[in-house]
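Progress report, Aim 2. The chain analyzed during this reporting quarter is listed below.
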Amino acid sequence: MTRKKRIAVLLAGAFLGMSLMLGGCADKNTKINEGMQAIEKLDYDAALALFEEAIVAKEDLELAYRGQGLCYLGLTDYEQAITSFEKALSNAGMFVSDVEVDINYYLATAQYKNGNNAEALETLNAIAGMREKQAEVYYLRGLIKMESGEYENAVSDLDRALAGSKGEPMMAIRIYQVFADYGYVQEGKSYLSSALKNHEDKMTDYEKGTVYYYLEDYESAKSYLEKAKSDSKKDDADIVLMLGKTYEQLGDSNYAASVYMQYIDNVGPHPAMYNQLGLCKLEVKEYEAALNAFDSGLAIESGNDYVQQLRFNQIVAYEYLGEFERAASLMNGYLASYPDDAQAVREYEFLRTR
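Predicted structure tokens for the chain:
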């Protein structure tokens, strides 16, 4: 997975967790409230229709456009998300409240995901320090600075993000991933070790398992993640994915594949599960099965933050199947969507020679 692909997925998890806290409260915002409930169920199309009704009915326009922007973020339509968040801010009051700070954070997220790093930083700079803690604001700003090569400034912001989260283990894990994605694995591991040292007694089995996974202690990771899975009252996608990846690292791709398939059978289609399942099938040289998994993942349209990964891995599967002309055609389309993917550019040059 390239750095940009991984980071898009990292941000996706953060977005929904914050998106529901400022929904419309007043009785007059009936459609807005219903729209936020639809977002919580990841039913973005229904939510968009509800927010459009709210706009026509002249409910709170700031909150209606905010909700609309959250839908487009969930649908990975970042241009539309930016437009909606800007409309939300244009309908704000004279004084800056938590709502405007929140909207600016999501605007920056959409700008970053759309490749507008400079604009995202400008938006984040405008709200940084306006409220206490702001862990997500400093995390996103640190991430962008790391990508831009501003290592010291990135570390400063990521440290502020961790402090703002009061050392929350999942924030430490996310910070580790930023360091690792840019080649600073050992520096990132120091955050994981500190999380264990200072917060292990308060960490869930899932958090412990994830930390041990990234510390490359896969046996300990398996132990904690198996316990987390058995104690969970329902199939938790995060637990299942991490457990499957642990089995992959332990060299048991077949069992990992069965973990992903069990989730799909029990819960339903899930883009990340299909992506990992496909990678497992590639590992054991079942290339048709791998392609079927990636195709199944791409067939999931709503809220699919794995489209880029799935498209790239689909091309790899066609390569392994010897269908180089098909792979080259798909890669041409892929690069039109993701021109900055250096790995894909190199792969395309290879395909053109076949």
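Residues 6-10 have pLDDT under 50 and may be disordered. DSSP finds 20 helices and no strands in the chain. These observations will guide the mutagenesis work planned for the next reporting period.
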